[in-house]
Backbone:
């Protein structure tokens, strides 16, 4: 009997680990699609990942998703945009429920201002994902750039 119980306990733990790995892969794929949409200036796809009440924090201030979308859309329409947005060293941490995840990564980014000036930076991003109605959505995002050493 002890062997049977040990077998089932091991099997359940294995299934749990496999489920976490599956969720991690889903979150990683969603984040890659999210960041690719940002890089290609596909704001409908990009903003489609956010919940309306997501908490976003850029450059030292919190703003609403609606204000962020309006600002970014206006910049693209005026000739600005993103030329590069590459993630590296991505890490996913699943919360015990399997329905919430935190993904962190380094971001190499190059943007084009409305006047044509290019800016290249390296940043660190934290994305908080929640599975809502079967789809992984961004409920929080924090982005911070590294300041170059002089």
Residues:
């Amino acid at each position: 009997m002890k062997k049977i119980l040990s077998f089932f306990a091991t099997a359940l733990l294995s299934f749990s680990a496999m489920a976490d790995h599956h969720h991690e892969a889903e979150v990683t794929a969603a984040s890659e699609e999210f960041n690719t949409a940002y890089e290609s200036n596909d704001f409908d796809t990009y903003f489609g990942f956010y919940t309306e009440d997501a908490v976003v924090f850029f450059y030292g201030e919190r703003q609403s998703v609606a204000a962020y979308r309006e600002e970014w859309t206006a910049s693209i329409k005026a000739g600005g945009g993103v030329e590069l947005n590459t993630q590296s060293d991505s890490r996913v941490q699943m919360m015990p429920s399997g329905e919430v995840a935190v993904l962190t990564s380094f971001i190499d980014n190059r943007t084009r201002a409305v006047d044509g000036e290019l800016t290249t930076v390296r940043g660190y991003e934290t994305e908080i994902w929640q599975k809502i109605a079967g789809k992984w959505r961004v409920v929080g995002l924090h982005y911070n750039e590294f300041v170059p050493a002089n």
Notes: Residues 14-19 have pLDDT under 50 and may be disordered. The chain has one domain: 2-145. The beta strands are 50-58, 61-63, 81-94, 100-112, 118-132, 135-145. The two ends are 68 Å apart (CA to CA).
